[in-house]
Amino acid sequence: MNTNPKRFQLTSGSTEEISLRQRVIRYLIVGAGGTVSYFVLVALLVEKMAVSPVPSVIIAYSVLTLYSYLASRRWVFNTSSKHLPTFSRFLVLLVVGFFLNTGIMYFATEILAQSYLWGLFGSVAIIPATNFTLSYFWVFK
């Protein structure tokens, strides 16, 4: 097991130092790739395969959850921890993100009586940073 959190194994016997800044950049790349893939997959399912929107979202979200977990585990955080406990923590993180996202939208629209766009901006500002922090210190430890 890799005990130095700053070491990133490229190939057997070869290592590269990876800084927190590099991890954040990789995290953002994985997130952006996942977002684009999610939109494309939903559009393909709805437009080309005639799957209704709700099942399309469920399918795409499930596929992208697995992509996000595997990319984060291997490329961003490079952990060799066991899959079951790590994936379980990852799923807990998704649930926390869901409730945080819902709470931010509720706060923006119901408490502050602002446009839902403020809730979206708040989510984009808060959730990725929260998810990265929890992933770094807890999920992929």
Q: Which spans of ≥5 residues are poorly predicted at pLDDT below 50?
A: 1-15
Estimate the helix proportion, in percent. over 70%
* Pattern of helices and strands: EEHHHH
The first-to-last residue Cα distance is 11 Å
Structural class determined from secondary elements: mainly alpha
Major sheet characteristics: 2 strands, antiparallel
Number of folding domains? Answer: 2
Strands of the largest sheet, in order across it?
Answer: 1-2
General shape: globular
Number of strands: 2
What can you see in these coordinates?
It is built from 4 helices and 2 strands, in the order E-E-H-H-H-H. It has a two-stranded antiparallel sheet. It folds into 2 domains: 1-80, no CATH class; 81-141. The chain is globular. The chain has 141 residues and is mostly helical. Strand 1 (7-11) and strand 2 form a beta hairpin. It has helices at residues 20-48, 53-76, 83-111, 116-139, and strands at residues 7-11, 14-17.
